[in-house]
Amino acid sequence: MRDFRAFFKGKSVTVVGLGLLGKRLGDIAFLAQCGAKVLVTDLKSARELTPSIKKLQKYNKPARGRAGIQYVLGKHRMQDFENCDFVLKGQGVALDSPYILHAREKGIPIEMDESLFVKLAPQVKIIGVTGTRGKSTTTVLIYEILKRAGMRVHLGGNIRGTAALSLLKEVKKGDTVVLELSSWQLQGFNEAKISPNISVFTNLMSDHWNYYKNNRKQYFIDKSYIYKFQKKDDILILGPSMKGKIKNVKSKIINANIKNVPKLVNLPGQHNLENIACAVEVAKILKIPDNIIKKTVENFKALQGRLKLVRNIRGVKIYNDTNSTTPEATTAALNSFKHKIVLIMGGMDKGPEVNDLNKILSNKTKKIFLTPGSGSEKIENTKANIVKVANLKDAINKSIKVAKKGDIILFSPGFASFNMFNNEYDRGDKFMKLVKKLK
C-alpha cells in the first residue's frame, strides 16, 4: 500500500473529461484535496459544463495546501499532455486519441480512476462486475448481501454518484470493494495489468458500436481485462449466457445458475434472474449464510432507470427503463412481460442491429410512441402500431391517454440519449419529473 496523499501531493495531473454525470467531480475534488495540481480539459465548452464547474467551486481557487484547479475547455492542447506527472483518462476517451498518443510518446503514464484506486488501496478484496446488461443490478445486489452479512464493504465504479479515488479515504485493510466496470474502465486495468480478485462477467451483447466502430472483437477484448490478469487463486463467475465462452484462464471458473436463485424475486425478466444468479455465486464464495442471501434477494428492488416500477395510475403501471440504450436491452425488457404493453422508445443510434427487436414489436406492444433520433429511424416494423411524437413529454401524455386499467407503460428507449438529453440519467430524471406530474 502506498500513502495516497503523499502519492498525489504536488503532482501535476491532467484530467481528460469533466462531463455532466458527476462521477469525475468526486475524483477531481479528491485530487485537489490531496494537493495535486489539477488541470481539467474537456471538448465541451465552459457554458455546457457550468453545472459541473459550479460543484467544484470550493476547489477552483488556490488555498492552503491546495493549488486550485485549472480548466481548458472547448478544446484540448498538446502541451497539457506533456507537462504533467500523469494523465487521468475519462471513460469514452479513445486510447487512440492523438492527445493520449502524444502523452505516451512523451512517456507520460495514462491512468484511469478505478484501476488507480486498486493500485493505491490497502490490502482489500476487489470484486469486479462487467457485462453489457445487468452490471449495476448485479453490483449493487452483491454489495447489499455483503452489507447485510455485516462485512465492511464499499460500492464504486460505474455507479451513478460514486467516485473511485475518494474511496481511498474510507477503505481499510481487510475491507471488500465491489466495483461495476464498463469496457472503458477496464482499459485502465489493462494499463495497470491487474484484474479483480473475484470477477463477474454477466453477459455480452451489442453495444457502443459507435465507439468500437462495429468491432465486436475489440469490445470483448476490453471486457476480458476483468479476468485476464487474475491469478490461480482468483475466481471468475460467468453469467448463464457466458457458459463455455471463456477458456484458457488462470483463475477458477464458476458458472452461475438461475436454479440457485431464491423463489421470491421482485425483479421482472429472465435477464434479472441471471443477474441475481451471479450475485448469489459471489455470496456463496464468500461463505455468506443462505438465509442472508435469501432475505436480501427477496427485499431487493429494481434500481432507478432499470426496469423499475415508478407509478401506478388508476391501474396503469409505469416502468422507467431509461438505461436500456440498445435494441437488445429493450428486447429483454419487452420479454419481461407476458402481455402487450404501451412502449415509449427512441433516440440516437449507437450502431447495433435492430432486427431482433423489430421482429417482436408487433407481438409485444399495443402501441409504440417513438421519439425522434437516428436510432428511431431504424424502427421500420410496419406491423407494429407506431406513433411518432415530438418529444418525451408528448409521448408520456399520449401514452397515458391510450392506456387502460391493467396496462403497462414501458419507457425503454433502446437507443442513446445524446440527441435530446445530456445522458441516459438526465433522460431518466426528466422522465420521472414528467411522470410525477401525471394525474
TrEMBL record:
<feature type="binding site">
    <location>
        <begin position="131"/>
        <end position="137"/>
    </location>
    <ligand>
        <name>ATP</name>
    </ligand>
</feature>
<keyword id="KW-0133">Cell shape</keyword>
<dbReference type="GO" id="GO:0071555">
    <property type="term" value="P:cell wall organization"/>
</dbReference>
<dbReference type="GO" id="GO:0009252">
    <property type="term" value="P:peptidoglycan biosynthetic process"/>
</dbReference>
<keyword id="KW-0961">Cell wall biogenesis/degradation</keyword>
<keyword id="KW-0436">Ligase</keyword>
<dbReference type="GO" id="GO:0005737">
    <property type="term" value="C:cytoplasm"/>
</dbReference>
<dbReference type="GO" id="GO:0008764">
    <property type="term" value="F:UDP-N-acetylmuramoylalanine-D-glutamate ligase activity"/>
</dbReference>
<dbReference type="InterPro" id="IPR036565">
    <property type="entry name" value="Mur-like_cat_sf"/>
</dbReference>
<comment type="similarity">
    <text>Belongs to the MurCDEF family.</text>
</comment>
<dbReference type="InterPro" id="IPR004101">
    <property type="entry name" value="Mur_ligase_C"/>
</dbReference>
<keyword id="KW-0132">Cell division</keyword>
<keyword id="KW-0131">Cell cycle</keyword>
<dbReference type="InterPro" id="IPR013221">
    <property type="entry name" value="Mur_ligase_cen"/>
</dbReference>
<dbReference type="Pfam" id="PF21799">
    <property type="entry name" value="MurD-like_N"/>
</dbReference>
<protein>
    <recommendedName>
        <fullName>UDP-N-acetylmuramoylalanine--D-glutamate ligase</fullName>
        <ecNumber>6.3.2.9</ecNumber>
    </recommendedName>
</protein>
<feature type="domain" description="Mur ligase C-terminal">
    <location>
        <begin position="305"/>
        <end position="413"/>
    </location>
</feature>
<keyword id="KW-0067">ATP-binding</keyword>
<dbReference type="InterPro" id="IPR036615">
    <property type="entry name" value="Mur_ligase_C_dom_sf"/>
</dbReference>
<dbReference type="GO" id="GO:0051301">
    <property type="term" value="P:cell division"/>
</dbReference>
<feature type="domain" description="Mur ligase central">
    <location>
        <begin position="129"/>
        <end position="253"/>
    </location>
</feature>
<dbReference type="GO" id="GO:0005524">
    <property type="term" value="F:ATP binding"/>
</dbReference>
<dbReference type="Pfam" id="PF02875">
    <property type="entry name" value="Mur_ligase_C"/>
</dbReference>
<keyword id="KW-0573">Peptidoglycan synthesis</keyword>
<comment type="function">
    <text>Cell wall formation. Catalyzes the addition of glutamate to the nucleotide precursor UDP-N-acetylmuramoyl-L-alanine (UMA).</text>
</comment>
<keyword id="KW-0547">Nucleotide-binding</keyword>
<dbReference type="InterPro" id="IPR005762">
    <property type="entry name" value="MurD"/>
</dbReference>
<comment type="pathway">
    <text>Cell wall biogenesis; peptidoglycan biosynthesis.</text>
</comment>
<dbReference type="Pfam" id="PF08245">
    <property type="entry name" value="Mur_ligase_M"/>
</dbReference>
<keyword id="KW-0963">Cytoplasm</keyword>
<dbReference type="GO" id="GO:0008360">
    <property type="term" value="P:regulation of cell shape"/>
</dbReference>
